[in-house]
Write a sequence for this structure.
């Protein structure tokens, strides 16, 4: 546990918001004209935390689609934009409670995500999390997306906090790798491996309980 803990940096997709089913559906709509289909389980297993351009290439390779990655991603993004015009990604269970808990305990808050800035700010505004989180580092702000450390390093810079006094909250292997590369301790939802800088939790409620124990020590 960083001492003192001054900041918490959240991932977006799969951590603050349950966006994966929406992204999966949008990919499905983008590839439907080619007669292709893949299950949500495949999306979660292979594409969670992976940048969209890489996801597009994975889908193209799997189904041998006659389209390049940028064009397929653009088609998928049109469906995402249509969804966001009238709706918002739903919050993960206990996300609002965890963010509010951190804010009320005087911690600085940020989002560092491989998602686009428009998607992140839409989520924060739609769910009122922008009351507590006003620092955002997105894929649009950096040269290299996760698993590179760029978004976390930028979030730390904008917060004015050293990595030794902050933690990341993540849900994917790519996100965990990004946080660790930025020298952050990572609170990881459902970790797949053990690491000395990773605190494994099963839910955001568990993450809040862990924070509460350590903040009170």
């Amino acid at each position: 546990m960083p001492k003192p803990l001054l900041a918490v940096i959240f991932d977006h997709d799969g951590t603050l918001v349950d966006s994966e089913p929406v992204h999966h559906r949008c990919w499905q709509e983008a590839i439907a004209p080619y007669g292709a289909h893949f299950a949500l389980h495949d999306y979660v297993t292979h594409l969670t935390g992976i940048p969209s351009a890489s996801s597009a290439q994975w889908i193209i390779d799997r189904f041998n689609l006659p389209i390049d990655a940028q064009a397929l991603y653009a088609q998928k993004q049109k469906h995402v934009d249509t969804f966001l015009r009238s709706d918002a990604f739903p919050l993960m269970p206990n996300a609002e409670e965890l963010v509010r808990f951190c804010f009320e305990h005087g911690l600085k808050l940020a989002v560092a995500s491989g998602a686009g800035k428009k998607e992140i700010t839409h989520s924060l505004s739609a769910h009122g999390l922008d009351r507590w989180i006003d620092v955002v580092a997105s894929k649009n702000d950096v040269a290299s997306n996760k698993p590179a450390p760029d978004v976390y390093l930028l979030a730390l810079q904008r917060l004015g906090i050293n990595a030794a006094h902050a933690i990341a909250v993540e849900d994917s292997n790519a996100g965990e790798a990004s946080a660790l590369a930025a020298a952050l301790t990572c609170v990881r939802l459902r970790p797949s491996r053990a690491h000395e800088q990773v605190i494994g939790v099963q839910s955001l409620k568990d993450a809040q309980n862990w924070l509460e124990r350590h903040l009170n020590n």
